[in-house]
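Hi V.,

You were right to ask for the full record rather than a summary. Here it is.
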Amino acid sequence: MEIGAVSVAVRSRANMPFIVKRAVIKGHMSGFRESSLVSEEEDRFAGGMPSTITAVRHGQSESNAAFDEAKRSGVSIALDRPDGGVSLSPLGREQATQLGRRLAAEDPPDLVLSSPYLRAVQTWELVAAELDTSPEVRLDARLRDHDMGQWSGMNLAAIRDRFPGEAENLRSRLLTGWRPPGGESLPDVADRLREVLEELRAEHAGRRVLIVAHDSVVLMLKQVIEDIPTDALAEFLPVRNASVSIWRGSKAEVFNDVGHLRESSF
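Predicted structure:
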């Protein structure tokens, strides 16, 4: 799924990446520690989360490249392939290698959680080739991309052609709990991620965790970790291919950073 291609029409922040500086106040749902404004008693996750959570989006996929070309040409496109089997494009492989070099400059991960989708697995393999470490690696289906149901593999023009009158729901309601036919909502994705974070809290406190996944996963991690209102999420789109986002507790040190990518890799 390419969230930015749809939702950025609602509201976007052009100057990515950006540093997030916001305080956690008493009563925040996430409760992850970010500042001294939250006491030990008030912060239900205090001392019980990974020391860092780094989330990266896969490099450009063959579907991403096809959608970009279709958008430039103004044509509709419907890809007849399972979403989980879409591989990286040549550019995406280059981006993943550059991503690996960026991550090699950070403290190495203790645990890697990857979406089982091919483009994410390939991204991790290329990242791993640049790292001087052998962390524990797990595939987790809860990190899969947003399921678009009957609309999977279609760009917005194709959805308009095949589902007249429904395309505007994708633009206006995707972030609010609406589901495409046979698919899932972004809050459904958030529910999956809450389960993942609870397990990290219980089993991997104090460890450095790397998540290799998709734009929908990175976006909804931001909502769950930082307790961001749904109506503010469009501000953080699009989540770029091979971007890096890092959290310590509930504080995003950086979000959607692509400074490591060469200009030719955009």
